[in-house]
Design brief:
Elements lengths: L6 E2 L4 E5 L2 E2 L5 E3 L1 E5 L5 E5 L13 E10 L6 E9 L5 E9 L4 E8 L14 E3 L2 E6 L2 E6 L5 E6 L9 E4 L2 E5 L4 E5 L6 E6 L8 E3 L2 E5 L5 E6 L5 E6 L1 H4 L10 E3 L8 E5 L4 E5 L3
Parallel strand pairs: 4-7
Antiparallel strand pairs: 1-2, 2-5, 3-4, 5-6, 7-8, 8-9, 9-10, 11-12, 12-13, 13-14, 15-16, 16-17, 17-18, 19-20, 20-21, 21-22, 23-24, 24-25
């Protein structure tokens, strides 16, 4: 059984997370690598689980995300989780070398364990650091050593929108209905503005972040430099429905004499708009 998520690698490979029963009879979820040309797959890495606690379903742990380290063909940043009593979770960060088949480091605790301490959305690697939404926290670790550089608690997660890093700013739509702009160097909040809680993934083009609000069903466009909302488009006035937050927003830069474009889907149709600028 495999996860529905696909993690890209090089042109000829991709990764997925699968379920196995190990030689001790416990369930775990290692990462498998698939060859696009042949369809063959093999187990790539299983995390170093402590097995201190066995979950009621006989599971000892699961890998959650894998990110190739930019500019290095050998290194992969990996997050994984272990169950704890009372449905709490420990989330860890590791760095794996595929050529030596050894961990550079592993079991770097990402946040204080709670029932929500999971890495909900794919981490981002930027300027030698790895950023992740771990439960209600955004955390930042040095990619070379795994040392945690900063952490900030938002009281809610970023599970649906995730976050992006653009213009040296980390932008995320939180379930507390706020859109945050964070300094990726130290975790301080540069600005925050009204968002929509549950939302689509964020899309960026020419200084503007676009997303569909799940709470209001509108297409939002927010200026990255200031936090000013420049668009709040209501699909009800277009076709009597709402923009669907379970679909992404697509952005296309200007090309071949055509202006930059934004495409969003309602419950009935797809619409193409000329981008804000």
């Amino acid at each position: 059984m495999f996860d529905i998520r696909i993690f890209t690698d090089r042109d000829e490979y991709y990764f997925m997370i699968g379920k196995i029963v190990n030689h001790q009879g416990y369930i775990e979820y290692p990462i498998f690598r698939f060859d696009i040309n042949t369809g063959k797959f093999s187990e790539f890495i299983s995390a170093n689980y402590s097995s201190d606690y066995i979950a009621p379903d006989n599971m000892i742990g699961a890998t959650c995300n894998i990110n190739k380290v930019p500019g290095n063909d050998s290194l992969y940043s990996i997050t994984y989780a272990e169950p704890l009593p009372n449905w709490n979770v420990n989330s860890f960060l590791g760095l794996y070398n595929q050529y030596s088949k050894k961990w550079v480091y592993d079991r770097k605790l990402m946040a204080k364990p709670t029932q929500n301490t999971s890495v909900f959305t794919p981490p981002q690697i930027y300027n030698g650091k790895v950023y992740a939404n771990c439960g209600y926290d955004i955390v930042c670790h040095d990619i070379a050593t795994g040392k945690q550089l900063w952490t900030r608690d938002f009281g809610a997660d970023f599970m649906f929108s995730g976050f992006i890093i653009v213009e040296n700013k980390l932008i995320g739509s939180c379930e507390n209905q706020m859109l945050y702009c964070i300094n990726p160097d130290n975790g301080t909040i540069i600005w925050q503005t009204k968002g929509s809680g549950t939302s689509s993934r964020l899309a960026y083009l020419n200084g503007i972040v676009y997303f569909i609000g799940g709470g209001d069903g509108k297409l939002h466009a927010v200026e990255v430099s200031t936090g000013k909302t420049v668009w709040l488009l209501d699909a009800n006035s277009i076709d009597g429905t709402i923009f669907a937050s379970y679909n992404p927003v697509f952005v296309f830069p200007a090309a071949d004499g055509k202006p930059a474009r934004v495409i969003a889907l309602t419950l009935s149709n797809a619409y193409c708009f000329e981008a804000y600028r």
